Amino acid sequence: MNKLNTSSSELDLDRPNIEDYLPSGSIQEPHGELRLRDLLDISPTLTEAAGAIVDDSFTRCFKSNPPEPWNWNIYLFPLWCLGVVVRYMILFPLRVMVLTLGWIVFLSCYFPVHFLLTGQEKLRKRLERGLVELICSFFVASWTGVVKYHGPRPSMRPKQVFVANHTSMIDFIVLEQMTAFAVIMQKHPGWVGLLQSTILESLGCIWFNRSEAKDREIVARKLREHVHGADNNPLLIFPEGTCVNNHYTVMFKKGAFELGCTVCPIAVKYNKIFVDAFWNSRKQSFTTHLLQLMTSWAVVCDVWYLEPQNLKPGETAIEFAERVRDIISVRAGLKKVPWDGYLKYSRPSPKHREQKQQSFAESVLRRLEEK
Amino acid sequence: MGNSSSMLTQYDIEEVQEHCNNTFSQQEIVSLYQRFCQLDRNGGGFISADEFMTVPEFAVNPLSQRLLRMLDGLNFKEFVFFLSAFSSRASLQLKVDFIFKVYDSDGNGKVSFNDVLDILRDLTGQFIAEHQREHVLTQVLEEAGYTKDSLLVPADFMKILGSSDLKMEVEVPVD
Predict the structure, then answer these.
(1) This prediction's pTM
(2) Does A56 sit within 8 Å of B57, measured CB to CB?
């Protein structure tokens, strides 16, 4: 996806001030009479541009750092080779078998339940939930997933929504193993899309399409309907809107925070020693990503279910989103950056540039008055 | 992508270092190479305008279009040379000359009233009226002893801007 188009998403002016996050440049407020020097001296702006070229906080969020090769000498290399043999020849086939078994069990139970128990909604829903949790456990087992859950397990209550930071689609599987959430996801092509339209649909999952502008209102409506429905599965939302490399968090979209219900934050942190769970969707397909996980030693992660939060009086949805992002970032040890994850797919709104232009223009005019 | 420093030989590093007149250390050049490869996603050997614009911090900069014209099609050696003005080891002359080059868009060695006006327009956008911009510029020019028709050369820039408190430095992260 190389074509970038101007962002149609809202990069509102009432977002937290980006200047607070960016390295404080040499932009001091100049004083005194306006001189030729002040108009010719573009060094602050140039420095900012050069700084962005050399290193920027946005690209850092999506960088998958390759691990330092440790197999570089004559003793460690054979050990590493042995490890590769074990991983690919022993573990991988075992895992494939476990996963296949899981699918067989799941499908042979799911279809009867889904089609035969059409009369007894409550029972059917309960069984379907249990089955989805089961297949997710099989998935997690197929990567030798070691997941430590902290905190009280999510409960099935109405008017609550769960938000979590996003590293890969496996976040969903790791969380789903414990609770059969309904999730809101980007509609994917291929076998994932097939799964989405069949099984996940029955859980009450909601789809969106990033590239469609009108989509936003439709999705917002669906979210609201779901949350206020009494018998629906608890809703899980990844407010970042895109996968981030588990060292940073990008800005949370406010959609999840203006539904008028309690927000329960969940923090997920993967241990990189075993495998880098970041799904760099620009570099690999989900299938490749899964295969990579299945040929690693283990997927180790921590999941923290954090204290439910409510909108404080006088707080805007965006402030609420930032507050929850802060809670999650602190818990999982992630750094916050002020960028919208969708900037992966589109360019920043001209509003940011205009803000800079405005502040410079105002300073020039002000100093003109000072004569 | 796995572009580690093994893609860049010691010989390459020294060549680049010489080209930028030792304004960057060898470690910095290696870091810059990693960054160059990170931005050059299609591996074409140069960073295209689109690839630069994927950096939001750069895209929101008012002078980004001007800089893109200067950055267009640069290979790694020239890329480092471009950035050398921002090194802590760069002389004041180098920095002032860089600023001059940004203004002198047609590269004829002279900066006219309109050249300065163009940059001022980039920096202030719609927030100052055109006639007001011209007025302000004319006023400060005359105060400094120039006229609207003066053509500034690098020596003039040095005279106007060349004081020790010109801060134009960027730190290259070295792991």
Answers:
(1) 0.79
(2) yes
